[in-house]
Amino acid sequence: MKLLKPTLIMLCLICAGALGSLRGYGASPKRDLFALKIYHLQTNEQADRLDHYLQQAYLPALHRAGVSKVGVFKQNAQAAGAPAPTEQLVFVLIPCRSAQHYTKLNLGLEQDKAYQTDAQDYLKTAFDNPVYTRFETVLMLAFTGMPTFHLPALKASPAERVYELRSYEGASEALHQNKVAQFNNGEIGIFKRLNFNTVFCGQVIAGGKMPNLMYLSTFENQQDQEAHWQAFKNDAEWKTLSAMPAYAHNMLRMDKYMLHPAAYSEI
């Protein structure tokens, strides 16, 4: 019998744990699983090489494995007067039908001859000339209130668009579940009514920051983003929902990333 490589064994264990988490959260087969890969880069050369890998090798391989759309997002230019970032981040969003689908597509890359050929620079890079500093993977289960990802209905060119990725951590598992319930019981509906063009809402089941949820909203441009959040802040339904004692203290910390889609992004 051919033995699995250690990385594949680890992947199977991670997804097995994810499957257990899905059962614990009352999962349904109709809820997407989102994988968010976050690449950390130091140089523009690394950024160019990663773009080539994603566009020419990784995304085509994911399509062959049954993933219909893949999102690739980069950080927007820094604000005037802000300190220069110490690294570049590239976010790759992979919507999957299930944890089994995610496991299968990753294991299948080693058997995909076209991928093995097209990804040579990425796979065979020298130790002193890496494509990235590191990458992390976050696995998320779609909320019951938004069980699948949505393509944004935007008219602006990808270069003009603003994609806002938010991460909400909770002080405890119970408070985190409470924040998810707040989304399902009203917050998602408000976003939809105010046309936030939300791509996904996901409950983190494996990642470096837990308990945690993440969601991605999209806007035509920076002014549109600011106007939407002002409308949300002043919305009567949101004021009522956020003032309810049942939802008090359910978010401990927020991280926000202002992004734009890569020219070849499909989301």
Automatic annotation (TrEMBL):
A Pfam match is NIPSNAP
* The organism of origin for this protein: Hymenobacter sedentarius
Q: What InterPro entries does the entry give? A: Dimeric_a/b-barrel, NIPSNAP
Which named protein is this? NIPSNAP family containing protein
Domain NIPSNAP per the UniProt entry, residue ranges: 163-265
Membrane-traversing stretches: none
Q: Cite the Gene3D superfamilies for this sequence.
A: 3.30.70.100
Q: Report the superkingdom from the record.
A: Bacteria
